[in-house]
Amino acid sequence: MLPGAVHHVIRRQRVPPRLLGGVAALAPSVAPSVAPGDERASLSSAVRIIRRGEDADRVWAAFHGVLDAKPDRRFVQAMLAYCAERMPAKARDVLDEAIHRGVCIADDALFCTFLKACSRTKPIAFRDALEFYKKYGPRSHNVIFGVGNVCRLAGHPQLALELIQDGIDQNVEFSEALVSLFAVICAESHCQLAADMAELLLERVRAHRIASHRNPQLYANFAKALLSQNRFDAAVRILSLLDCIGMQPSEQLGTLLLSSLAKADRADLALDVFDVMARRAIRVPAPAFGLLVSACARQSDLASVQMLLRYAQERSADLLNDTVLCRFVSAFGSRSDVHRVRLMEFYANLKGLMSKSFVLTSFVSAYGQCSLSTSVAALERVARDNDLLQQDVVVAAFIEAYGGCCDIEAAQRIFQERCSTKPTPDMATFAAAITLYARHGMPLDALTLFDRLESGNRKPPSEVYPAVLSACVTLNDPARATRVFQLIVDGDHIQIPRDVLQSFVSLCGRCSDLRALSAAHRYVAGCSSLKDDDDLTNAFVLAFDQCGRLDIAKDILLTSSSFRTLTLPTMVRIFARHQHVDEMVSSFESMVASGADASDDLRALVCRGLANADRIPMALELVRGMAHVGNAVVVDLVSACGRCVHLSDLSLLYRYANEKDWILNNAVGGAFIQAYSLCGRVDIAEQVFRDLVTYSLDAYTAMIAAYGHHGLVPEALAMLDQLVYAGLEPSAEILAGLLAACEHAGDLFRANDIVFEFNNSWGIPVGVTHTNHLLSLHGRLSGPLEAMTMATSLPGATADMWMAVLTAARTHNDIDHAESAFNRLVSMPDAATCHLCRAFEVMSDVYARNGRPDDVSRLRDGMKSRGIPDSPGRTKVSLPDGTVEFLADDARYYTDPGLRHDMTRLINDLTDNGYSPDTSVIRRATVSQEEARQAVCLHSEKLAIAYALKHSSRSGVPVCAASDLLVCTDCHDAAKFASSITGRSIYIRDTSRHHHFHNGKCSCGDHW
User: Fold this and answer.
1) Rounded to an integer, what is the distance from CA 588 to the centroid of its chain?
2) Entry's SUPFAM superfamilies (predicted)?
3) 198, 280, 484, 562: which has the fewest C-beta neighbours closer than 10 Å?
């Protein structure tokens, strides 16, 4: 119900269903003076004046003359009738005066007369009609019809849609005239509300709540309303409604449904409509039939196309005219159905249709799609015989067809032949040639031809721009590709093929052109057929990541309709590349949970990401589920076990490697040797080396590096002799391993001999890595002054070199040289975070040992200002059943009575044997000496040793641990005491070197 409605029960009046147009209104009425006797005329005399149709001014004066005499409804009715005929623009004024004088205008006949006047104004007074209807109009059949008709005549049918609900609410009789009007209003409104109202009315007809009028046009108009809003199913249901009421669908309705559904690619519904029309012998017009054939072809429904062809041949031969024939040819050509294309050609020749250019070109295109160059050539002869090669549409078809057959020479011949004649070929011909070149690996020719058109002030057709864009992408020309893309966007809304657009997106990513990439993303967002394309989504995700906008890539992932099918693997790869391990794992788990296939390649990528992040148990679980494990995955996982001192997992992997023959790979064998070395188990690394089937240079390099890390010079040199005896030549990496052994053993004499031998015997000079070892060795033996002299004499001294000087100064407790080396290192613009962390750590230790807490605090502030993490020390210790990690001042010490007991027992045993905690290594302020003592005793290395001695009590089994900081002097002393008291070897790897504590001594010689 519209607002302001006034309810009256009024006898229904018969009015014509269609009102006639009006006449021009009179000028604004200002009543002239009238005779004194007329001023007091009665209402009856005024009515007579109006009905006689005298002079308009006189009538208007009479109307005003009796207003004070309280005119009744009949008088107003007479005046409105006069206005409708002579001065329709005055009808509103009459109604206003009547309302002002208290006349009830909610009368069917009176209001319909007013509506008649409204329909005759110029322009039509539809706003007046709606306004008075909403406030005063009776909700009757005639009035609702009249208001709707006024809105429709005024060109605003959508304003009348609310009248439908009014009619339903007031239980108005829905006569054939009223329903027909509503159907037209719905059809002409072109909006969702109109479709809603059409469905509502049709459902009421189906429910017998509205009479089922047998008016074919009425149902066709309802179908138009539904089809305009893509409500195809509802439109098709009109046919079943007609079945229910026993009415034959009209040809108009069937044709309308068939054409609209075919154009919308709803071939399934269109075939249903066609079936109804065929069964009921309703004529199917050729244009609609042809649209259906093309729709089935676009849906790759060749069976339906064949069925339609049989129908045309058997039941309605007149359907197979030249236009429909061409549609059949295109359909069969698109499916490479050569047999039926040839049948169509036979029929066309039989009917004499091949002389028509559009028929010929349809066959040319079909044979091009079938890649039948000989058939295209035969049609070229037909074209020449009929003098059709002067028509550009025919030439363009041949160029495209020969291109489809990969006969580029014939296509160029046709094009050049046409260019040699006048007039100049049209844009369609040039477009075909440009597309030919772009698609067949001739991008330069495509762009040259395009430039020729532009330079000649001839605007290329918009259809050619995608091909030009493809050529620019092929030539890897981002600037020109972006310009062409913008021309497409600003042009005639030509859709770029998906493969071309995907290539452009990838080009933007490779060139880090974020602006062009964002423009392409906006373009796709506006194309409903492209925005949910999986391959395009993946391309955008990768490209935005390449442009450094991982945030946008993630947003695309989250809003993609293929979130759990295709884009998740892409995001797994991106997160793995950025080492965002948690997000990588989350994406991978979501993908697996969605049922998407996780290939071995993707599992390998995730496994390597987990291994590089030291997530070893999860990585091992993935390896167990892989059908094929690549060597790179094994190497990464083995290396992770070595870094994290996961001896038990490393042993498990070694068994796998032997069972699955991974160990036969040189890189895998070398990785196991290195990993066992990192865990402090050189003995097992030697066994791995001995068990290798073949001794490659990689294996020798790994074994010498293992000896080098542990300072085992004789063993390293023996391995070098074995390598030379095997006929292999040493490398720079071998020299580095040997010099590392000399550095850790403090053997300068052998280091110099090795350098001399490598240079003279194998032509291997000293490089930067070798210099680092030599400089550290000189600093250890001769002091920081000599190391400083060496470093300053070298051009481009590295951070490692200044770190070696700083370490030498720490060993010799030389504050001046330590500060000098420290300042040089931290002032280097390219110093890595790991070097800065170690430099601050060593310098803080120097200040702490020399009783300078203020300088220690200053360094801590310096670390904060540089954003260098000051994390508590972490130590991982290997046990038979896994690896356990401890933090300095670990919370478990306070909550685990067993750990607290083990720690107390170890400290007491050490103290009883001469150990005394060195509180000078504490770098943070403490309240008391006792607090400082406890802080020293709760270093992560000591906690790890105490726990391992308790939980791996077998004699002869070494304790293997790794610390992420330099071992402090107090922990170093404690480990020496522990190895002496327990008789157990203790291996600790810190950020500088390996420490092997045995019988109260360390392999480093107290230099690290």
Assistant:
1) 17
2) TPR-like (SSF48452)
3) 280
Six token digits for residue 573 = 């790869």
Is residue 256 very low, low, confident or very high in pLDDT (cuts 50, 70, 90)? very high
The CA distance from 460 to 964, in Å, is 66
Residue-level pLDDT at 251: 95
Phi/psi of residue 886, each to 5°?
Answer: -125, 145
* pLDDT class of 560 with cuts at 50, 70, 90: low
Q: What's the CA gap between 308 and 324, in Å, rounded?
A: 11
Tokens encoding 432: 């075909």
Do 638 and 671 touch, CB atoms closer than 8 A? Answer: yes
Grouping H, G, I as helix, E, B as strand and the rest as coil, residue 927 is: coil
SS (H, E, C) 454-505: HHCCCCCCHHHHHHHHHHHHHCCCHHHHHHHHHHHHHCCCCCCCHHHHHHHH
Residues 6+ apart with CB under 8 A from 508: 478, 482, 514, 516, 517, 520, 543, 547
DSSP classification of residue 161:
T
Cβ-contact 959, 945 below 8 angstroms: yes
For residues 249 and 214, give the distance between their C-alpha atoms in angstroms, rounded to a whole number. 10
**Helices H / strands E in the chain, number of each:** 54, 6
Task: Give the 3-state secondary structure of 745-795.
Answer: HCCHHHHHHHHHHHHHHHCCCCCHHHHHHHHHHHHHHHCHHHHHHHHHHCC
Structure token digits, residue 586: 């989350």
Q: Are 142 and 108 in contact (CB under 8 A)?
A: yes
Give me 8's structure tokens: 């009256």
Token readout for 928 is: 């008391």
- CB-based contacts of 379: which residues, under 8 Å, 6+ apart? 360, 363, 364, 367, 398
Q: In what order do the strands lie in the sheet with 1001-1002?
A: 882-887, 874-879, 959-963, 986-989, 994-998, 1001-1002
Alpha-carbon distances of 906 from 284, 889, 895, rounded to whole Å? 100, 16, 18
- Cβ contact 271:278 at 8 Å: no
Burial letters 209-233, b for 16+ CB under 10 A, else e: ebebbebbebbbbbbbbbbbbebbe
DSSP per-residue string spanning 516-574: HHHHHHHHHHT-TTTTT-HHHHHHHHHHHHHTT-HHHHHHHHHH-TTTTTTHHHHHHHH
Cα distance between residue 5 and residue 140, in whole Å: 11
Q: pLDDT of 495-514, one tens digit each?
A: 888 899 999 999 999 999 99
**Short-list 997, 333, 504, CA closest to 710:** 997
Burial grade of 385 (CB within 10 A; 0-12, 13-18, 19 or more)? exposed
Give the residue carrying structure tokens 């066709």: 220
Q: Are the C-beta atoms of residues 8 and 106 closer than 8 Å to each other? A: yes
Token pair for 112:
């319909």
Q: How far apart are CA 727 and CA 718, in angstroms?
A: 15
Report the phi/psi class of residue 138: left, alpha or beta, with left for phi > 0 and alpha for psi in -120 to 50. Answer: beta
Distance CA 669, CA 697 (A): 11
Report DSSP state, residue 664. G
Sign of the alpha-carbon torsion through 141, 147, 149, 151: negative
pLDDT band at 615 (very low <50, low <70, confident <90, very high): confident
180 and 148 Cβ atoms separated by less than 8 Å: no
Give the β-pairing of 1001-1002 and 994-998.
antiparallel
Hey, is 21 helix, strand or coil?
Answer: coil
Using CA atoms, how far apart are residues 553 and 538, in angstroms rounded to an integer? 9
Q: Tokens at residue 541, please?
A: 């995700």
Both tokens of 1004, joined, read 């480093």
What is the rounded distance in angstroms from the CA atom of residue 476 to the CA atom of residue 467? 14
pLDDT digits (tens, 9 = 90+) for 943-982: 999 999 988 766 678 999 999 888 988 999 999 999 999 9
